[in-house]
From TrEMBL:
Name this polypeptide is given: Tetratricopeptide repeat protein
Organism field: Nocardioides bizhenqiangii
Stretches the record annotates as Disordered: 1-34, 163-192
TM helices/strands, residue ranges: none
Pfam families: TPR_20 (PF14561)
Family matches, as Gene3D superfamilies: Glutaredoxin, Tetratricopeptide repeat domain
Thioredoxin domain segment(s): 15-156
First and last residue of the signal peptide: none
PROSITE patterns linked: THIOREDOXIN_2
Length: 321
């Protein structure tokens, strides 16, 4: 699934809700689990009382709203469970608000009006940052594999943009096991992430390089280093000028790899891969080697388990042989 980068849009007008929303932090729902109910420490059932505070949490880190309806589309409740479960693996990079439109139709009406829709489609997935939709809403059923790909890409975009905030686990959320508690954010990555948050790209590259040098098998550090180097290469680059240069000379390795880097940062992962794979087909010797090595670095930045990387590797093998 190709995902668009974070973009600023209009804030949601909450005035249509009948009851004012208190300002306390959102809390998880207790009781027995049921389809569409919170299933992690970073998921909350949304109602009129906590809707505003859930959205306000997006000033810390992105908030994902999942709209489901047990009566209209029973399968949508399973999708809500999948989103909550997947997001729970990101240690607070996202918070999920689960909206049962049967129980709180007013919230669905507010979102439909803000989106200029006659009726809200169900299921629907939205991502908010700083109180505003951050990506185009995603209507309809999305498979678990596609959801995993989506959040992997969003997590990479957060890192690329230096957005490193995390939500705190919700009070009243399902208890975590001791093993889960030990799997919190690894402090080894904090210096690099702090450097990114401060806009110090060179510092982030240096910190990730230290981690890779000390443990070449550290896949997360390798991915972080690869993405930080993309940011480093593209600092101060004019997108229009870069595209013009690439269009003027399709076989210029420097020009083509620069646009591929910019495409990757813009969320156009498949386009970035396709550009360099075609360049591999057209070039030879040192130019081909440089292009291939650059493409492999972009594979590492996206993550070797990403389906687009697996597809890209197959295409690269075909281009080489």
């Amino acid at each position: 699934m190709t995902q668009q980068p974070f973009v600023g849009r209009g804030a949601i007008d909450l005035s249509a809700l009948k009851r004012p929303a208190p300002q306390q932090a959102p809390t998880g729902a207790g009781g027995d689990a049921k389809p569409g109910a919170p299933v992690s420490a970073y998921a909350v059932a949304v109602d009129e009382q906590n809707f505003q505070s859930v959205l306000q949490s997006s000033t810390t880190a992105p908030v994902v709203l999942v709209f489901h309806s047990p009566s209209q589309a029973p399968e949508s409740s399973q999708m809500a469970d999948d989103v909550a479960d997947i997001v729970g693996q990101y240690d607070g990079r996202f918070l999920v608000g689960i909206v049962d439109v049967d129980a709180v139709p007013q919230i669905a009406q507010v979102i439909a009006q803000a989106s200029q829709l006659p009726q809200l489609p169900v299921p629907l997935l939205m991502v908010f940052l700083d109180g505003r939709p951050a990506i185009q809403p995603i209507p309809g059923m999305v498979s678990r594999d596609e959801l995993s790909t989506l959040f992997n890409e969003l997590g990479q975009q957060l890192t690329a943009q230096g957005i490193t905030g995390r939500h705190q686990p919700l009070a009243g959320a399902p208890a975590e096991s001791d093993e889960d508690e030990e799997d919190g954010p690894d402090p080894r990555y904090a210096p690099a992430q702090d450097a990114l948050a401060a806009g110090d790209i060179d510092g982030a590259v240096a910190e990730y390089q230290k981690l890779v040098d000390s443990n070449p098998a550290d896949a997360e550090a390798a991915a972080g280093l690869a993405m930080a180097k993309v940011l480093q290469r593209t600092q101060g680059v004019d997108l229009d000028a870069a595209r013009a240069a690439a269009a003027a000379d399709p076989d210029d390795v420097d020009a083509q790899t620069m646009v591929a880097d910019l495409d990757l940062l813009g969320g156009h992962v498949d386009d970035a891969f396709a550009r360099l794979i075609e360049l591999v087909r057209r070039t030879s010797d040192k130019d081909r080697d440089r292009t291939r090595e650059h493409l492999l670095a972009l594979f590492a930045a996206v993550g070797n388990e990403d389906p687009r990387v697996l597809k890209g590797r197959q295409a690269l093998a075909s281009a080489l042989f």
